[in-house]
Amino acid sequence: MRDDKRVNIDVTKIRKAIQSGIPLSITTYTLPHEMEVYMGDVLTAFLSELNQSSMVEFLTYSLNELVTNAKKANTKRVYFAEKQLNINDLNDYNKGMLHFKQETLDNINHYLEIQKAKGLYVKLILQARPNEIKIEVRNNSELTAFEYKRIHDKIEKAHQYSSIEEAFSQVLDETEGAGLGLIIMILMLRKIGLDDDNYQVLCENGETINRIIIPTNKELKENLDTLSNQLVSMIDSLPQFPENIAQINSLLNDDNVKLSEIATLISSDVALSADLLKIVNSAAFSLQNSCHSIPDAVKFVGTRGIKNLLFSLGSIQNLGSSSSEQKKLWDHSYKVAFYSYNIAKNFFANDKLVVEDSYVCGLLHDMGKLIFDVAHPKILEEFEKSLQEKAISSIVLEKITAGQNHAEIGGLIAKKWNFPEVVTLTIQYHHYPEAAPTEIKKLATVVYFANMLANYQEQIVEYYQFNQSVLSIFGIETENQLKSISDKLNKVFNS
To answer: Given 163, 181, 216, which residue is the final one in a domain?
Structure first.
């Protein structure tokens, strides 16, 4: 009958989270059996999408062990509170643990209801990052000092055994300190090539975090990068920039050029002038008075700004916006550009370069997603042939076509078109600003935040999926604060 309660998983949501590198989270307050099953199913699907099905058995056991321990820790807190015992006092702790197991088992629903009322949760978080898969089980009951020591004693104990069978034969009692489940988990992780550094127990901001880090297959990463480079070089339908834009950019590279000369050259191209004025007069730049001429626009935006806008317009021309999917991507990108500029202007007003570069980086952050819409149909055939010649798994092609490497591909396209390095790198790191080079970290953070806000409004991501370190940069500690910023930006964008 339990199988009848099986919750359907949303594979599309899992796939999108993987492609975007954002965390996927499941939260429960009582951990019923069907939720345990659901967590296992999500983990299985997640690993399957990443072509890591061989690890499912080992990691499912690890997941069950960690969520059970997290639930037990939360139950312990409400049990001790009910018994008026101080869980941080060793004497009280030992006293409480004498009858904890039996009394909570006999009346588990009672204690689970108290947990729920107090907001004590167990949370599973899965995230695919460029070089690793991260699995976390969190609960909002911090370990006491002696609980923390016992866990690490169990981890050390696991090192004494060469096999799971040996652990079973030597750990025979069921006392809390025996920790057979955790010992077996450590041994199972060892079976799939993970060592001590791959499993961590942390206490942060009122939470206990059990984290498993699985390094991405190095060969797979190398193959992804190789084929991404090959893809960009093979696409003849991605020419260099239009001649008119290239000519203006060449002039802009001259340090001695006068703004009047730039304005004159742009003004000679009626279509380009109209497009530039349209962007400059858009809500993104919040002009008090409209610009009616290119000279006015050049004065307002500046040389660097004009150059960035030309990169934007050239990209739109080359990548196209005719199909429904292209239009959808560009609509999203325009919103991210608007948000990026306004976020930079409000939070980093003293950093002129971040403000100036924010619009173009926001607009072009997802250009790698357009690659297969504009590529010639025979590209994939050539790709598949290349895979066979190089003995590379078809999995690599699946990952690229699914958009999993789109930030890297977008960066390569930008490099091909001779974009400024700051733009190229921001595109490449817009999902992982914490990994970005120092010189563009601030800009990558702005674009990441803008992109996530747009996705949040479109209900693609939830609050928990935001990088908490990034939120702290913008002074956001609650979802209400995030929603306030989101609503303000959206209102101005749509006005």
So the answer is: 216
